[in-house]
Here is the input.
Amino acid sequence: MTQQDQATQNRFRPETSRGHYLLEVFGILCFVLLVLLIGVDVYHGAVEFGDLWLAPILAVLAYLAADFLSGLVHFLADNFGSYDTPIIGPNFIEPFREHHIDPKGIVGNDFVDANGNNSLASLPFMLAVWVVVPLETTYYGYLFGIFFLFLCLAAFLTNQFHKWAHMDVPPAFVGWLQAWGVILSRDHHDIHHESPYDTYYCITAGFWNPLLDRTRFFERAERLIRRSVPGTDPRFRSEREENL
Ligand SMILES: [Zn+2]
Ligand SMILES: [Zn+2]
Here is the structure.
């Protein structure tokens, strides 16, 4: 970490309340526990069904899916709801929007702050998969289990990758991964940080961003949601902000 990054870290010490910080620690511990529980079931599936050669393919698919999901969640948090929306308002909508105002603030987040909210958000889905999906007794349940474990791991790492993309000088191995396009790079992510912040939403690796930008996917999605979901403002967010 450079002196500048260190200075940024001191200047933007997160103002997470002690209660929420403990909740984030709890979220990370539960995340690890559920990974272990799902992992044990998947292990039993592997003993029963084999075909472990499919694991690397499923890992790549899961990574691509996580990148797309990161874009979708980011898009929704940037454009819909408000800081007062129950649960997701203070935990997702506010951090994403404040991040546009203070993009360097994320560099000051420690491991818990960087990854706690993503862990908490993953828990209901992980619990549902562990309880409902026959991970060790059916072949396709077992394959889904492998895919899902990698998906959770990539989701867990997403905000860490996002944080690294905002550092002036990230650790050397991170810079190498960024240069190879394996994880989100600074130059790539800078495109999202240009007003009106309405493209390049994906923040795991950013793989989908050029395609989604070219096809105006999120513009179309925003229009569709504003037309079809009752209660949403019919104007685009960028239009509303222009008139402020
Ligand atoms: Zn954003
Ligand atoms: Zn950012």
In short: Residues 74, 78, 96, 100, 192, 197 surround zinc ion (ligand 1) (CB under 6 Å). The chain has one domain: 3-12+20-242.
